[in-house]
Design goal:
Length: 402
């Protein structure tokens, strides 16, 4: 098959990408290489491999990307304090550029002429995948079946699958779509399309409800080095291990549920429900440590471009020159964000119980309300008058003009 055209398909084993695999082979008369990215979705990936082969894939790549995902993507977002529209911790958005990066690497190794994905023409993921493809290989051809074929409904997909002998799960599909990785689970569509309707309790997989959480709080310590978490309760863990452990702690205590209506990059509003227990804990701990060890002006500057970083991640511009610049600034801001944070986890809440750092900028002899020998309170008089000067001049001009 050395002269056969090759397409690398981002494959999940679900109905959509299974149909796409067969459709690509027929429509483009090409050899289809299925690529499965393990970012912590918790599926039986050997079963996915077997399904890809039985559906017609010539080769299957199963890539374990969990450690890279957490270390280089999740932790970078935590360092930046990135939250989209004040609520979303960017779980899906962070995984897509990594998945697409490895897909392009495989396409280059296999000398494939094209890559393909299963994202629909209405969502954000098509943009995230394809911006990464073109950023890393401008010559690659991108095939987006949902924008090309006439299989525009679930019924049509099922009929195509039955006609072509593609195995389809016999269980009833959940009345919503979901995406899972080591950082979160997202839910959207179906029964969630009414923004007035409360999400059903039996939908959630990672977290118990705060009402059902234990009545006793859980205390944990998280140790950071240069903004990255490295230890949990004194035990060194890999990035993926640490996030996985926090997911269990947070999930068991009802932490990390979000229900929001967000602005998609393609122009529409969409309701999303998310579970991000470990990420929620890390974000609170990281912020607490920064309050102790980060310079005021550095913090305010970083906070100023935090919404832009979140937007770039959400829109799919991870591999852009502006993101390169902002990531470098974030890393520079984290040089002294080293230390330990003590947290109390209780019924959906993440409560800071203590923080310490060898680079602490908090000096008790300066902050104290007791007598001290460092800070001369009378110095504040001139400080205030100088800062009030422009305000006073403005008022005098108003009176003069009146």
């Amino acid at each position: 098959m050395s002269d056969t055209k090759k397409i690398v398909l981002a494959y999940s084993g679900g109905l959509d990408t299974s149909v796409i695999l067969k459709w690509l082979a027929e429509e483009y008369e090409a050899e289809i290489i299925a690529y499965v990215a393990d970012v912590g979705q918790g599926e039986d990936l050997e079963e996915v491999r077997e399904k890809a082969i039985s559906t017609g894939a010539s080769k299957v790549y199963i890539e374990d990307l969990k450690e890279e995902f957490v270390k280089d993507f999740v932790f970078t977002a935590i360092k930046a304090g990135s939250i989209y529209e004040g609520t979303y911790l960017l779980g899906t958005s962070l995984a897509r550029p990594l998945i697409a990066k490895r897909q392009i690497e495989i396409a280059n190794e296999e000398n494939a002429f094209a890559v393909s994905h299963g994202s629909t023409g209405k969502g954000n993921d098509q943009v995230r995948f394809e911006l990464t493809y073109y950023a890393l290989n401008p010559q690659i051809q991108v095939i987006a079946p949902w924008r090309e074929w006439n299989l525009n409904s679930r019924t049509a997909l099922l009929e195509y699958a039955e006609k072509n002998g593609i195995p389809v799960p016999v269980t009833q599909k959940k009345p919503y779509s979901c995406d899972r990785n080591l950082l979160h689970i997202s839910y959207e569509g179906g029964i969630l399309e009414d923004p007035w309707a409360e999400a059903p309790e039996d939908m959630f997989e990672m977290t118990v409800s705060p009402e059902s959480a234990p009545d006793d709080p859980v205390y944990i310590d998280i140790e950071f080095e240069k903004g990255a978490p490295v230890k949990l309760d004194g035990k060194a863990l890999s990035p993926a291990e640490l996030l996985g452990a926090l997911n269990k702690i947070g999930g068991a205590n009802g932490v990390g549920r979000v229900d929001m209506v967000e602005n998609r990059f393609v122009g529409m509003k969409s309701r999303g429900v998310y579970e991000t227990p470990g990420g929620t804990i890390l974000l609170a701990a990281h912020r607490a440590l920064e309050s102790l060890a980060m310079d005021r002006e550095v913090m305010h500057l970083r906070d100023g471009f935090m919404p832009k970083i979140a937007e770039l991640i959400y829109y799919g511009f991870w591999y852009s020159p502006e993101m390169d610049m902002l990531r470098a600034a974030v890393e520079e801001s984290q040089k002294n964000v080293t230390g330990t944070v003590k947290l109390k986890i209780y019924k959906g809440n993440v409560i800071v119980a203590g923080r310490r750092s060898p680079y602490s900028l908090y000096q008790e002899d300066l902050a104290t309300f007791e007598e001290d020998s460092i800070y001369d309170q009378s110095d504040a008089t001139g400080f205030i008058k100088l800062n009030a000067l422009r305000l006073s001049v403005r008022k005098m001009l108003e009176k003069k003009g009146g």
